[in-house]
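Predicting holo structure, WT7 bound.
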Amino acid sequence: MNHKIKSLKDYIFEYQKSVDQPESFWSKIAESFEWQKPWDQVLSWDFEGPEVRWFENAKLNITENIFERHLNAHGDKAAIIWEPNNVNEKGLHITYKELFERTCKFSNALEAQGVKKGDRIIIYMPMIPEAAVAMLACARIGAVHSVVFAGFSSSALADRINDCQAKMVLTSDGNFRGPKNIPVKAVVDEALEKTTSVEKVIVCQRTSAEIQMKSGRDLWWHDAIEGQSINHKAATMDAEDLLFILYTSGSTGKPKGVVHTTAGYMVFSQYSFMNVFQYEQNDIYWCTADIGWITGHSYIIYGPLLSGATTLMFEGVPTYPHAGRFWEIIDKYNVNQFYTAPTAIRALQAHGLEPLEPYSLDSLKVIGSVGEPINEEAWHWYHDHIGKGNCPLVDTWWQTETGGIMISPLAGITPNKPAHASLPLPGIQPVIVDTEGNELVGNNVEGNLCIKFPWPSIIRTTYGDHKRCKDTYFSTYPGMYFTGDGVKRDHDGYLRILGRVDDVMNVSGHRMGTAEVENAINEHPKVIESAVVGFPHEIKGQGIYAYVICDMVGESEEKLNREIIDTVRKIIGPIAKPDQVQIVSGLPKTRSGKIMRRILRKVASKDISNLGDISTLLNPEVVDEIINGANI
Ligand code: WT7
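Done. Tokens:
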């Protein structure tokens, strides 16, 4: 594949070109893809709107760029290697040709069920090959997929279905996850009681659990594909037609549907994959994310498959049936590039070196990290014990909204510096601004991270609410995309991400809005008010700390504690469960009624040495009570 950067000199040259002449830079890269009709204009943009269009008026189908473009050269190469949850079950090698046939079959099945271009389809599935087929078939027929992580609760699922008015849900009878057997179909059934748009549910048989099939609405995957042809003519998509919606949490309100469109996302996911991981044609690449997150979209499915790579998909969890499972899989398949999250590294680090002993990990060439800042200790452990000191470690910074990796070393090319995401990819123009929006130039500066020029896979809108997109990302610093992250440029010009500067937490690499968790807690009938903050957590990066004012009449703290945690689990899902609940009689508020979260954050992190000025509080006495109740 062309356009692969091979040296630091190359990188510097390409980067400069991408800034000086972004249009010719990206059009050269885009030319290596297959287009049904070329573009009239490479880019038109205005961050005021915001309005960004890449490869205007071009026509294409992203799956033709995965399949038709590669089939002659490597139809028999494994596209997906699938490793099941259960070690005794046989895995699968699915070739490009087989994946194509499966995708065509399912595309035909979807059309037979009445799905049309532009319809929204929810995918609520485990990490099985059918989930990949589901995404690709949607893309093939021009339906917009919205994958919902299968650990979300029925009400979180219902919110997403309602927001995008999905016509169909693709799911499974149950999911195997570690020792658990999760009855997800029942979750879908419950969600559909709160929605009206869904006409059909297609259920993939995985666990053979006993489930309800609602007649007229539910059908089995195997019945749906029965007799369908293995050929399908791909829909013609406009460059800016929606490819997918992916919901993510923000600092306010309900999760928003981040919209990505076809051509720009295709070009950038492939380009970034190839360059960051330095994938070579016979490599086996493995990203441990779930397809419910953007990492799974861009770096399990689209980026690797567009590159003709072999991508490993793992159904299970890192510690089942033992804490060496990841390492066992790496040796079993001779994985060359391994991409995971700091939270997984820290969790495995806690098991010590013994689980590593049976494995050589010799095949590894590149290791990667994503989702949250990687602390130096975890960086070194990962680098020394997994990478054996000789694999470049790519600490990749990006977001659901950016569609692809923005700031990262290129493996083996950019010198490694622990805990630094390092340098921007070609085409990415990060700037550091102070709170007034002044650009901080030069080295040794710290501030808020913005991007000042569009890249091909930038968020286009938040589904159904363009103003929210503008307000969230393009209004804080007019003329720039604001990431919500703090960043430092060190004395060498390398970037280090410092974490969120807004009310968004990062729990085990999952983004979680404080307001969202508070809203869930407030659903408990005895809760009067709550305030949620993040605090440093050894394994999760950040944990969730909830301060809650309750009506205590006839209640015990212990029971309320349990019920509050359970309420959050039910409303959002297990990943949003507070680690700590503290019942308080009041929350520290300013005279204008704003909760002073700074104090709550300090107490939650057990750091009360310098609480700052609390004299402006309406109720300063509550601070002592909170400190006393916090077990510091
Ligand atoms: C937020 C985006 C990108 C896919 C997974 C998460 C944090 C992500 C890094 C990193 C420091 C990171 C940021 C960002 N983040 N990667 N390498 N170093 N922080 O996607 O759920 O959209 O979350 O994750 O805070 O804003 P997401």
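The domain at 8-317+396-474 is CATH 3.40.50.12780 (Rossmann fold).
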